[in-house]
Design brief:
The complex is a heterodimer of chains A (372) and B (449). By secondary structure, chain A is mostly helical. Chain A has one domain: Hydantoin permease (Orthogonal Bundle). Chain A has a two-stranded antiparallel sheet. In chain A, strand 1 and strand 2 form a beta hairpin. Chain B has 449 residues and is of the alpha+beta class. Helices cover 49% and strands 15% of the residues of chain B. Chain B has 15 helices and 14 strands. In chain B, the strands form four sheets. Chain B has a five-stranded antiparallel beta sheet with strand order 1-2-4-5-3. Chain B has a five-stranded antiparallel beta sheet with strand order 8-9-11-12-10, sandwiched between helices. In chain B, strands 6-7 form a two-stranded antiparallel ribbon. In chain B, helix 10 packs antiparallel against helix 14, helix 10 packs across helix 15 and helix 12 runs antiparallel to helix 13. Chain B is elongated. Classes of the chains: A mainly alpha (372), B alpha+beta (449). At the A-B interface, helix 6, helix 7 and helix 13 of A face helix 15 of B.
Chain lengths: 372, 449
Amino acid sequence: MSRFLFYLIIINMLTNMVSITPRILIAGSAKGTILSMIVALILGIWLTYILVILFRSFPGQDLPEILHAYAPKWMATPVLLFLSVAWYVAGLFTIIIYTFIILRFLTPEMSIYVIVLTFAIVVTYGVFMATKNILYMSEIIFVLVVPFIIFIQIKGYISPELNWDYVRIALMEFNHLPDYGALTSSLFIVVGTANLVIFNRVFLNLKKLTGKGTALLAFICTYVLATTYFLPIGFGGFDSLENVLYPWIMTSDSIRMKFGIIERVVFLFIGAFLALGVVSIIIHWHVSIQLLSSVIQFKRFKWRKFNLTNPLIMVIFWVVAMVVTKSITAEGLFKAVEMYDDFVLPALLLLLVGSLLVAKKGAASKWRESKK
Amino acid sequence: MTEQQAPPLLNELSKKFKPSDDVVQTPLQIKGQCAFLFYVRTVVDGDKLQQTVIKPFFEMASEEDYASYILSLPNQIEIPEIDKLLMLISAGAVIVAIDNQLCLLELRLVKNNEVQETTMEPTIHGPQKGLSEDIGTTINLIRQRYHRASLKVEDIIIDDASNIAVSLLYDSDRVDPEVLKKIKKELGNLKTPLFQSGGELQHFLNKSKFTLFPTAMVTERPDRIVYNLVAGKIVIAIDGSPNVIVVPVIFFDFMASMEDNYHVSAISGFTILLRYLGLFMCIVLPSLYIAMTSYNPEILRIELALTVAGSRIGVPYPSFIEVIFMLLFMELLTEASMRLPKAVSGTATTVGGLILGTAATEAALTSTIMVIIISAVAISTFVIPINEMSFAVRVVRLLLIIYTSLFGMVGLLIGFLGIIMFMANKDSLGTPYLKIPWKSKTNELEGGQ
């Protein structure tokens, strides 16, 4: 398994640790979150396996290329449009969540527009980077940031404030049937592989999931999912977390470094996850913009030799992001993410796998025709 | 015996060189034998000319003997077409005409061929001598350290005013042919009226108008050159320049000192760590000060936050002006001590140090902690082993300060990510500029150290 695929998956996973996902999981803690997490894990790894196998048959091609070549046009355009919007919204959620976190915990007096603008300059540059370079960049940032995250989590696990009894209570709730909401949100954590729709472009030789790779992936996914769910409960209590907006921020703020230059771990935590968040936004929007520009391309819209379609799309992205970030409430965001996880995500995965299967069939028949 | 006429080519050449006073066209005559010499006196080695060309003429029995003697000399070169010939003569070639037969001998007088001390990248354990300003000596130094038939030396003719000699050196077994093709194309397309040094050529090889980070390395160390040759890189040597250019290079090349190879692993590991820490510090520290004092003092532990705030009492402006003010003076000081003659630069640093150190804090123009930070930044800038990178870092630091002043702590973090992105998106002749070179993964030596 290629290490860059690992980064795609893990960055997606870690970014969601701070977002709304833990809140959704904790909201269903009395209704079968544990079983849904287990199901989501199995489902997620199985999906990763399937997607890797499917994309393997089209080395070096992204989804638009595959669909344009091997699938009927009436199918390709709507699928690509839908996927593009879905990816855009995924990135948008990340940006809104991080803007809220920054507003709440770092710079409460700053205007929302200024915070979004902070992202805008760097993320715009990142989105227009070459696909390969985005992978290199995410590797570097991953390597820089992960030690901090591991440090914070070790600090959390050995902290005397962590009450294991709450974790045991949470574990006792495994005898409920899986909850759909919790299932889909934990699934969202696991399916970073779907980014291959564009990133498959640079994977000329995508390796199949080996036994070792699957084991490692399963281990990391289990660990991250379990930490996401159990650590906040251990710190905050089983029943009292219902009304907490960002369980993980609260959790990390319960940890203190007595002798550190930075006393409150929460700042380290926000910093590390903010870096991953930026990478995640870049990955999502890069995918989105590439999908969109494969469908919409104004040929005449040019300045000198540059086609201005992509910059225009980017500007629209930011305008929408600004408006939505300004107008959405925390509760609205929670509902929106829940809806996205419940309806858009399964549809997205089904469409993705379905269209790839169609394309594979198309490719096979084309190959047969060329043989005749 | 009638006076023999000089061959027409010589007359043509002397017409071209007129009215230069150092051009010599002279006949050699003895008892019916006759030969003509044509050269530029100031670039030709007179002793050698006397010993190997003129003296034998008078000792030989016949013109034929002399001709075959001249033709067998080791420094004899084929006569090229007229443009190249003019170039060669102005660089120190001598034409010997015997009985309408023309020979070209290379008898350059090179005065700048002494091997120089390493000044830009000194090491304690490594070789102390660098390269030479003469391209022949430079290539000699490299070849004497790299005894392989696969080391190729290719002369490149650059279409500029000075016709300066440029050579490409590479190991044909190890070099990436794509990169070689690219660099040759780049050198062929070079549209510049005049260039004289390695640094300048590096500037032209960086294509885009705005470049922040160097994508070609200028070095003066033969050991580094050989190290890079082994890694499959291409070395460009230029006559008159005591440095050569190494392409393609990646970010980590600039952070490597040759000394890393000469120490025990623990020590070199420690110094490498120190260097990266220095790099990180000199980029981030000033911005961190702005973010910590003006935006988020609560991030620091309370005692430290109070100390910082306490030392800022009386400073009449916001922290970003303080930082830019101090940084400006530090940069001015660095620049001044680089440009000034050695005798004066000591005074400059003393005066500057006094101003920055005590007077500025006593006048409450800046906080004491700021002074500490600025000196830490100045010191850690000098830790970066290759000058070009430390210059680039000075500019990057400024950009990050601006971004932090605008957006605070988040701006610092995202701006730093932006720098990483900027480097990751760069390439040096097709090699990705910033990419983690895992040792065990694909090709260990190529592209990275």
